[in-house]
Amino acid sequence: MANVSVISGTDLGLAERIGAFLRNLQDARGRYKVYRQTVKELNALSDRDLYDLGISRASINAIATEAAYGQ
């Protein structure tokens, strides 16, 4: 997922652009951590537990993507 920030009418300096880049990188790492943790936790469940939750193993990645990225 790529984040693009557009600020019209303002010319950002190098320090602001680096700061924005680092914030976006930190946000991306945080979202990926949520994705990996969700996949890990769902994969640890038994097939019966997943069935009780209405989740198939094939949909784990899609559920983790939704949890982390909202897509």
Features:
71 residues, mainly alpha, 0% strand, DUF1127 domain-containing protein, YjiS-like
Give a structural overview.
InterPro entries: YjiS-like (IPR009506). This protein has 71 residues and is mainly alpha-helical. It has one domain. 68% of the residues lie in helices and 0% in strands. It has three helices and no strands. It has helices at 14-44, 47-53, 60-69. The protein starts with 13 loop residues before the first helix and ends with a helix. 1% of the residues are buried. The mean pLDDT is 90.
Order of helices and strands: HHH
**How many beta strands in the DSSP annotation?**
0
Binned, the helix content reads: 55-70%
- Poorly predicted runs: none
Mean of the pLDDT scores? 90
Overall spatial form: elongated
Report how far apart the termini are: 10 Å
The number of distinct structural domains comes to 1
The major beta sheet can be summarized as: none
Structural class of the helices, strands and pairings?
mainly alpha
Number of helices: 3
Radius of gyration: 18 Å
Kindly estimate the percentage of residues that lie in beta strands according to DSSP: under 5%
